[in-house]
Hints:
The protein is α/β, with parallel strands linked by helices and 462 residues long. The chain has helices spanning 15-21, 40-46, 51-63, 69-80, 112-130, 143-152, 171-178, 194-206, 208-213, 224-242, 260-271, 287-294, 318-325, 330-343, 350-359, 367-381, 387-399, 418-421, 432-435, 451-461; strands at 3-5, 30-32, 91-93, 98-102, 134-139, 158-165, 185-190, 216-218, 250-255, 277-282, 296-297, 346-347, 361-364, 405-410, 445-447.
Amino acid sequence: xxxxxxxxxxxxxxxxxxxxxxxxxxxxxxxxxxxxxxxxxxxxxxxxxxxxxxxxxxxxxxxxxxxxxxxxxxxxxxxxxxxxxxxxxxxxxxxxxxxxxxxxxxxxxxxxxxxxxxxxxxxxxxxxxxxxxxxxxxxxxxxxxxxxxxxxxxxxxxxxxxxxxxxxxxxxxxxxxxxxxxxxxxxxxxxxxxxxxxxxxxxxxxxxxxxxxxxxxxxxxxxxxxxxxxxxxxxxxxxxxxxxxxxxxxxxxxxxxxxxxxxxxxxxxxxxxxxxxxxxxxxxxxxxxxxxxxxxxxxxxxxxxxxxxxxxxxxxxxxxxxxxxxxxxxxxxxxxxxxxxxxxxxxxxxxxxxxxxxxxxxxxxxxxxxxxxxxxxxxxxxxxxxxxxxxxxxxxxxxxxxxxxxxxxxxxxxxxxxxxxxxxxxxxxxxxxxxxxxxxxxxxxxxxxxxxxxxxxxxxxx
Length: 462
């Protein structure tokens, strides 16, 4: 298996080189040269596997022997042994057709743990095997930062710097990042939005000389390993429902801001998983929903919401989808992304828009509807949603069809967003690891939102 850039100017590279490159050196995103196809017979065999066994089989398709199978098995087992639930990502049934895929049982109570526990261990493995320096640079709208830090804190040969938008993440998210006092961790609180943080990251990675000089590696979902790891729980959830005789029409409703989590579902479907529908749920920062509904990809005014991890206007994984939408035409993708950079928008129509609408359904959830969904599910099912999952639930309620098994991806534990939940007079008890955060000192630097300021911090840290 080789990996190529969506912009076509990088020679095919292997799995480990793809992980280390992160953002492609031509500014594009790396994708597998061919998507592995999974037969019906293989799906039937995989249905009986544990989560870790399933992850090993799926990763093996993409690693293609670069990591010995026993080493890969140890990486997978070590990564998912840190989860609090034996199934890793259990499926919770609410009623006859509604399900919640709980992705928050990892060490930081967020779905990002599923990929970042693995990627952290993978980076440590590569560092040991190649005697290489790993300097991780990432941006977070809330959950990625804590998960990434937890995945590599204290690991020899690795240093990590995480940018987050100052005072635009939840208090628990902030504490999970900034109470870590390890020498290999630097937290920068950037004056601006997540889009500012993400833009800085992509521009620094696009500076190939700077990237190579400081051995920069990506932890955001621009790194293909993140996407590959997230495909696993789509397969796993499908198998759990199939065991209940629900294999005919299974749809997934995915709260998303950066297009990574739902792109993993799209990739799973292209591999052969018989997904009926992918429902894309956004909050009021609804650039992705507007793209699906109207064919216009254009940032609007930034809106702070109760689901801050989705407060994103420019989705970093959107380019990967465009690559497949346009038949893997790298020249077309390059042209479209140049147009977006110059004009601030991409407009599609006709058969191309029809294909987008065949690939996804989409719904944008207003702030009050998000909170109402939390209240409704708590009253009806005695189940507490975090506000991001509530967006997925609201979209599912609007767009799921009769006779369809609808799986909502629950991306975070509700304790991470108590500020929003208390607005509906719902109280909860914090898990002990989260409660303990409030008594710890914080370690972070507040910095301006310019490339030069971040470069200065990195040069001092790395």
